[in-house]
Amino acid sequence: MTTPAPIDDVPIGGDVIRLGQFLKFAGVLDSGGDVKEAIIDGLVLVNGEVDRRRGRQLRPGDIVTFEGRRFRVGT
Which of 66, 67, 50, 62 is nearest to 18 (CA)? Predict the structure, then answer.
């Protein structure tokens, strides 16, 4: 049985952030091109489901998963 990865809390300093912005802000990916490619390729999960929209609105409490790492959107 596999233990889920720990969740890193990432405070965004507001109520909403777009998925693409969050991935760069959290230091998950460095460039906008990398972000776009990862999202389009279905490598990013939001709350356990693939989401291919860079502009997806994330709110505090949402969980973003990429390459086995999990990040929780914080305030």
Answer: 62
